[in-house]
Design goal:
By secondary structure, this protein is mainly alpha-helical. Helix content is 62%, strand content 5%.
């Protein structure tokens, strides 16, 4: 929760497309839904250009909650190949699709679930409420930890800082490496 993507490079869409290679039709990037940009962004243009599906953890959670999985009789290819489908859709101009196209992905997922979009959006909102609850718990933990640290004695604070910076472990690793080099004659 503490890390948010600031720009399309954080999502690494082009790298994902290159990693896919020539033999695979599509690639899927899964990120937190509410961290995708809400307006026009380079990530959407890159995803459309490179046929990378922008999916979300919340989508996966909803699919799992509804026991949806691929098998011989049921394919999620329309979701995985959504960027290509959006580019081919003559009803959507390419310029409009470069804006946040998550609503279109939502409709693809809702269709696979066999539900209308408003029902799906309610499920997505429930996911948002779960995140808010988790965030509140995380904040409470951090605030409690700050209060606990404020009560440390000087010695406890120093000990905790040394442990947190892992300096003793680094010293041990360096010493171990240096000793593995054996005797070294220093030449001036």
């Amino acid at each position: 929760m503490s890390r948010t993507a600031k720009n399309q490079k954080d999502f690494k869409v082009a790298a994902l497309s290159n990693w896919r290679g020539g033999e695979n039709e599509y690639a899927v990037l899964v990120s937190p839904y509410f961290q995708y940009p809400k307006s026009e962004s380079q990530i959407y243009k890159t995803a459309l250009d490179d046929n990378v599906c922008l999916f979300a953890w919340e989508h996966i959670s909803i699919l799992l909650d509804n026991n949806i999985s691929e098998n011989e009789n049921f394919s999620l290819e329309t979701i995985w190949n959504s960027s290509s489908m959006l580019v081919r859709d003559s009803k959507i101009s390419y310029e409009n699709a470069k804006c946040c196209f998550l609503p279109k992905i939502n409709s693809f997922v809702a269709k696979k679930l066999g539900m209308d979009i408003s029902s799906f959006l309610k499920l997505l909102n429930e996911q948002k409420l779960i995140i808010v609850k988790r965030g509140s718990l995380e904040l409470a933990y951090c605030e409690d930890k700050i209060e606990e640290i404020k009560k440390y004695t000087h010695e406890q604070a120093i000990s905790e800082l040394i442990k947190e910076t892992k300096l003793e472990e680094r010293i041990s690793v360096i010493n171990s490496y240096l000793s593995s080099l054996g005797d070294v004659d220093e030449q001036s």
